[in-house]
Design brief:
heterotrimer; A alpha/beta (about 120); B alpha+beta (about 170); C alpha+beta (about 700); A: about 120 residues; alpha/beta; Rossmann fold; B: about 170 residues; alpha+beta; globular
Chain lengths: ~120, ~170, ~700
């Protein structure tokens, strides 16, 4: 089973993403912010990471930069959840090593469709 | 519980338009009818916990599956001499809306009698005895066969606050 | 796969309300012009989360509105704009407005957008936007049933893998759009020595025949537009056998990419990849059609509390297993001992479990306190008073239900302190006080109660004014002599608050009598202490929970009543020599240096068959509202925790009874309301808190 790390400070988004992915047959681990995610990611490997951008303690961009520098995450798809107002965030995210982005608002079907581009 | 579900099902099958079902019970030789939709269950008499300073017709309270339900002696409520409770004595548990609040209460009656379908038109036929003491509780008088049934307005019979204020 | 988004709504609402609370309190902490980044960030994040969530879950009215807030906050965050007091006020209003919107949505009602639209216009004015930027709506092009063939050239740059993207998956995606023909080019492969295994040297050309538009293709390559050369072009006309034609054109060419680039220069189709958001229309429909109208409330419970519950249930299961094992054995003396031990264990487990289940309902009072900074800010601005609010004991825990019900009375008392208690800065300076007044909210546990104090350092209650008003309203007589405390008590009487003092701030037609009544309905009490020129303190005492009570079972004739253990001072046998009769029929027991009036429960509750001789009965001395009385009962039975049930729900209020419970044998037992009992006994002088006996007792003495 493919493992995905879902990172969001909003419980409802986290639940929605987690539930959707689990239902689609992924093994999902949830984290509430970048720093929690980073320490989880260092302990175990993931096949993909989906992270919100705006989060307390450590934001999503920093998380992606940190992850991409880890040898285990050199090729791992790292996706960010961003809003349409965050166009410059996409560039920033790409520069930090993000694989791609999912634009909020999205629904479960869109999430899974997008994910198929990087993990199967 | 099983009784009234059975009754309701049975009745809804045979129900015709503009007819309501009434559960009737006996008290001091008279037959009274209640809107069957208000009836929750029929139980035997059991010991109650007295409520301090309650009017005499409030016998007390029982535990109905975790809910506290007051028990009203309908004879005393109507000012009819009470009789000692026996094996036939039943408590009809009803759920009634009184002053915008849904209340569950138990009514002690002599015995349960029958179930009738009575047309709305017929049930509305109220003789004018509003000034008599118990007249206010009556919704209508109907003849079923050769018997006369007094249809009760539960909302009024069980509106204890009104009666008490009146009594002083 | 279809997922019902409505299952996440409750969590969304809850976190949104929390977010709004956070926004509010951070906004209140802000001093415009001196804002620090972290505060702005917190506010921004809250708005951002609400926007993201509401968009995802289909609450577009909320996400549209939050968008302007977010934009403004983003500009402040980036230093493009400085925050003014006007902004803060507008943001605070928006917090209120969002709460209203979300509450309506939570109740599945159509939210009233008038205020939101007004506020949004104001924000747009500030931001200088004319049109309302809503979620970027994609004009969902009505599916063109006609098929076209696209030629797509895809030449990833070597670093592509390092972005986490996988060309094979993209090709797979592409294949799902329609019929595809693929050509791969490996000409860029370097010599084996120079080949880095983590770099990409392959490139592809696809011919895709699909009924989807170009955008669908662009979306697939959206993420790699900077990491690859991508050229998408339509070939030939509709319905032509394009792939073959194209194939011939590009027959065995080596410099595929360059060539096609040239081709595409003249091509009318721009290969621009755009970013697209699709609003989830479907989910908003689901929200509307959701039937469940009853709003279920939920509590967040710490995982440690849940863990300890699980442990306890585990113990309970073990005990149960032990007991059933004993049950299967032959009954001997030793099994009886084991049974008793098992039952003791069961009692212990049950009690632990009960306590811990109750703990789940306990929340810190900060949930209530947190609404006051805003309230105090708004009111003090309106009154032109300077006020500092101090919050103490915010972590004191309280049952959720009690908490919900205590909030309104507290608001009333705080409004009262601000309006009537605290003076204007001028008056305070004249009185030699700090121009800034202080209102303190303090909470702490005392016994099984929570005590909440509302203190102000204002002018104190004006006893003269209260007295003359009470006389005017006929509550007391001109010649009544009352102590200052007694006069202060008058403000809690019904009929004290009159229409002429109704002000916008504390009036609202609600008097202190209502405050007291509401608090008493929670089995609590409220009293006031005041000193002229120094301030006033309102003290609220409440039971920690409404659901359970420690009770002393007592017997009167054949009836069993429950007296709340918390009210009981002591229980004793009456020394008949210390009893004096006062007046016509009141017995008073001298207990040490106090006179305790004896209340015969059977008399007040009108029960026959109880023991009437004082020396054969027991006296339960209870305290309520600072007065002690002795309740005469036949016997004391067990002490136990009882679950409080309402008698009123199906019956009516009974004087002297606060509720009912169900005993172990299934019978109903009534719980005695001590202060109601004292009232019923006729011991209290009307209009005061003083017991008749205190005067008469003094006469005896």
């Amino acid at each position: 089973m493919k493992k995905i790390l879902a990172v969001d400070d909003s419980a409802s988004m986290r639940q929605m993403v987690g539930f959707t992915l689990k239902k689609a047959g992924f093994d999902v681990t949830e984290a509430r912010d970048g720093s929690e995610a980073l320490s989880i990611a260092k302990q175990q490997g993931f096949d993909a990471v989906i992270s919100d951008v705006n989060m307390p303690v450590m934001d999503g961009i920093t998380l992606i930069r940190e992850l991409r520098n880890l040898p285990n995450y050199k090729f791992t798809p790292l996706l960010m959840l961003t809003t349409e107002s965050g166009l410059d965030k996409k560039t920033e995210g790409k520069a930090a090593g993000a694989t791609g982005w999912i634009v909020k608002p999205f629904n479960p079907e869109q999430l899974l469709a997008v994910l198929k581009k990087v993990i199967r | 519980m099983s009784e009234h579900i059975g009754l309701n099902q049975q009745l809804s099958l045979g129900k015709q338009q503009d007819e309501n079902q009434y559960l009737t019970f006996l008290m001091a030789g008279e037959e009274y009818g209640l809107d069957i939709l208000a009836v929750q269950e029929i139980r035997g008499w059991e010991d109650v916990t007295a409520i301090p300073n309650a009017p005499d017709f409030v016998k007390g309270a029982i535990n109905l599956r975790g809910t506290i339900v007051p028990i009203i002696d309908l004879r005393l409520r109507f000012g009819i001499a009470s009789i000692s409770y026996g094996p036939l004595t039943v408590v009809i548990v009803v759920s009634v809306q009184i002053r915008e609040q849904q209340k569950v209460m138990g009514l002690v009656v002599d015995a349960v009698s029958d179930v009738y379908s009575i047309s709305e038109e017929k049930a509305k036929d109220v003789p004018d005895f509003q000034d008599s003491d118990n007249g206010q509780y009556v919704n209508g008088l109907v003849n079923v066969g050769d018997k006369m049934v007094v249809l009760l307005s539960l909302a009024k019979v069980l509106d204890l606050s009104a009666k008490q204020v009146a009594q002083g | 796969m279809s997922i019902d988004l409505s299952q996440f709504f409750e969590v969304f609402f809850e976190e949104s309300f929390e977010g709004l609370d956070a926004m509010e309190s951070e906004l209140l902490n802000l001093e415009p012009g001196k804002e620090d980044n972290e505060t702005i960030n917190t506010i921004f994040r809250a708005a951002h989360s609400i926007k993201g969530g509401s968009g995802t879950f289909g609450f577009t009215s909320v996400s549209d509105f939050t968008h302007v807030l977010e934009t403004l906050l983003d500009q402040v965050r980036d230093g493009q704009r400085t925050l003014t007091t006007e902004h803060v006020n507008l943001l605070l209003k928006s917090v209120d407005c969002l709460r209203t919107l979300l509450r309506a949505l939570q109740a599945e009602q159509q939210p009233d957008l008038t205020e939101a639209n007004e506020l949004r216009e104001k924000f747009e004015e500030i931001l200088g936007i004319a049109e309302t930027p809503t979620t970027v709506a994609v004009a969902e092009s009505t599916a063109d049933v006609t098929k076209s063939t696209y030629q797509i050239d895809f030449k990833p740059k070597p670093h592509l893998f390092k972005t986490g993207n996988e060309p094979l998956y993209m090709i797979g995606e592409l294949g799902e759009l329609g019929e595809i023909e693929t050509q791969a080019f490996h000409d860029a492969l370097p010599d084996i020595e120079q080949l880095h295994p983590d770099e990409c040297f392959l490139s592809w050309r696809f011919f895709l025949t699909t009924d989807k538009d170009q955008k669908a293709i662009e979306e697939i390559f959206e993420w790699v537009e900077d990491d690859a050369e991508i050229i998408i072009g339509i070939c030939g006309g509709i319905f032509d056998g394009a792939p073959k034609a194209a194939e011939q054109q590009n027959n065995e060419e080596q410099e595929v990419i360059e060539q096609t680039e040239k081709q595409s220069d003249s091509s009318p189709v721009p290969a621009v990849v755009s970013n697209v958001a699709v609003p989830s229309k479907e989910s908003s429909k689901k929200a509307e059609s959701q039937k469940n109208t009853e709003t279920s409330t939920s509590i967040r419970v710490g995982i440690d509390k849940v863990d300890s519950l699980i442990n306890m249930v585990g113990e309970l299961v073990i005990t149960q297993a032990m007991l059933s094992q004993i049950g299967e054995q032959e009954i001997t003396e030793s099994t009886i001992t084991a049974l008793q031990e098992g039952l003791a264990q069961l009692a212990h487990n049950t009690r632990d479990l009960q306590e811990n289940v109750m703990r789940i309902r306990m929340l810190p009072i900060s949930f209530v306190f947190s609404r006051f900074p805003r309230l105090v800010r708004d009111i003090s601005q309106k009154l032109n008073k300077q006020v500092e609010l101090k919050l103490l004991g915010e972590q004191t825990e309280l049952d959720k239900t009690v908490m919900e019900k205590i909030s309104d009375p507290m608001v009333h008392l705080v409004r009262n302190s601000l309006d009537h208690g605290l003076e204007t800065p001028e008056k305070r300076i004249a009185a030699g006080k700090d121009p800034v007044g202080t209102v303190t909210l303090n909470a702490f546990h005392q016994g099984g109660n929570i005590v909440i104090e509302i203190m102000d350092d204002g002018q104190g209650l004006n006893t003269e004014k209260i007295r003359s008003k009470a006389i005017a309203n006929g509550l007391i007589q001109e010649h009544d002599e009352l102590s200052a405390d007694e006069i202060n008590e008058l403000i809690f009487l019904p009929g004290f608050s009159t229409a002429d003092e109704v002000s916008d701030i504390s009036g609202r037609g609600v008097g202190m009598d209502v405050v007291r009544r509401n608090i008493q309905a929670l089995n609590g009490s409220v009293e006031v202490a005041s000193a002229k020129g120094v301030g006033s303190t309102f003290t609220i005492r409440l039971p920690l929970t409404l659901a359970i009570l420690d009770g002393q079972l007592v017997q009167v004739a054949q009836h069993t009543y429950i007296i709340p253990l918390i009210s009981i001072v002591e229980s004793l046998q009456i020394d008949i020599t210390k009893v004096s009769r006062v007046g016509k029929d009141l017995d008073v027991l001298r207990l040490r240096d106090e006179y305790i009036p004896i209340v015969r429960l059977y008399e007040i509750f009108n029960h026959k068959g109880a023991i009437e001789e004082l020396d054969k009965t027991l006296l339960v001395v209870v305290e309520s509202d600072n007065h002690k009385v002795g309740i005469l009962v036949d016997d004391l039975l067990a002490q136990q925790q009882v679950v409080i049930k309402s008698l009123e729900a199906n019956y009516q209020k009974v004087d002297g009874i606060s509720g009912a419970t169900i005993l172990g044998d299934g019978r109903v037992s009534l719980i005695v309301d001590i202060s109601g009992l004292i009232k019923l006994s006729g011991l209290k002088r009307p209009g005061t808190q003083e017991l008749l006996v205190e005067q008469q007792g003094n006469e005896v003495a």
